Amino acid sequence: MRLFPYLTWVVMAGFAAVLVAIADQRTQLLTSIGSLAVVLVAYAVCKARGSRPAPAVTAGEGAPAPDSVSTR
Q1: Is the four-CA dihedral 54, 43, 1, 35 of positive or negative sign?
Q2: DSSP characters for 8-58?
């Protein structure tokens, strides 16, 4: 990812800014905090299981060649 890890911090700061902006609206604030909790739990579970993204498939490893792709 470009600008890693700085872009991650920018996104987290943006999320915090949104939470501050909607702080006067209790329902939306609680929903946003709940969403953040779900994401953090999912991250912790994936990290604990050692999950990694699937490797990319190249044309020579089972993907159809570009000239054999049918177009409709």
Answers
A1: positive
A2: HHHHHHHHHHHHHHTTT-HHHHHHHHHHHHHHHHHHHHHHHHT--PPPPPP
**Tokens coding 2:** 């470009």
Q: d(Cα 29, Cα 37) in Å, to the nearest integer?
A: 12
Cα dihedral: 25, 26, 27, 29 (round 10): 80
Each residue's pLDDT tens digit, 47-57:
888 866 667 76
pTM over 0.85: no
